[in-house]
Every structure is written in structure tokens, then in C-alpha cells.
Amino acid sequence: MPSIDIQVLEGVFSDTEKAEIITRVTEAFGSVAGATIKGGTSVRIHEVASGSWGYAGKVLTTADALRMREQG
Fold first, then answer.
1. What is the pLDDT of residue 16?
2. Closest-CA residue to 47 (of 3, 9, 4)
3. Residue 47: what pLDDT?
4. Pairing state between β 58-60 and 53-55
5. Where do runs of H (alpha helix) occur along the chain?
6. Residue 59 to residues 10, 33, 55, 64, 66, Cα–Cα distance (Å)
7. Is the Cβ–Cβ distance between 61 and 8 less than 8 Å?
8. C-alpha distance across the termini of the chain, in Å
9. CB neighbours (10 Å) of residue 44?
10. Is the whole-model pTM more than 0.85?
């Protein structure tokens, strides 16, 4: 069945927030794919080490991502 992988920088989301992300992504996917497929959907959150992610040629850190969250 479907497998959804989400990558985030380490230390940006709490365990509670990661659980909510998993629940909401599963619900959103299931609302399109249907209940049977939703029931077999796997969602994994992978945390990438701070400084090991680049965007537009810039290295991102956990501190950068936390600032982005504060900005909304």
C-alpha cells in the first residue's frame, strides 16, 4: 500500500507534532484515495541532521528552520 516519507530537520518538531503530522497526512491522503487504501497507508518522518540539508544552495540548520516556524 502507499508509503509516504516526510523529511524534516532534526529538533524542529516535537514528538506530539510529528504524531499530528502523521495523522493529518494519513487523513488527507485517505480522503482522496478512500478508506481501504487509507487503512494501509504508511507515513514515516525522517529527521535530517542539522547542516545536512541544502535549499537553493544554502545550508540549512535546525536554528534556521526554527526561525522559519516563528515567522509563520
1. 98
2. 9
3. 98
4. antiparallel
5. 15-33, 35-38, 62-71
6. 14, 36, 7, 9, 14
7. no
8. 34
9. 10
10. yes
3-state SS assignment for residue 58:
strand
Q: Which run of H or E residues covers position 48?
A: strand 42-48
The CATH number for 3-71, chosen from 3.90.180.10, 3.40.390.10, 3.30.429.10, 3.30.470.20, is 3.30.429.10
pLDDT by residue, tens only, the chain of 72 residues: 899 999 999 999 999 999 999 999 999 999 999 999 999 999 999 999 999 999 899 999 999 999 999 998
How far CA 16 is from CA of 22, 44, 51, 59, in Å, comes to 10, 14, 24, 27
Domains of the chain: which residue ranges?
3-71
Q: What is the pLDDT of residue 72?
A: 81
The span from the CA of 66 to the CA of 44, in Å, is 21
Judge contact between 69 and 12, C-beta under 8 A.
yes
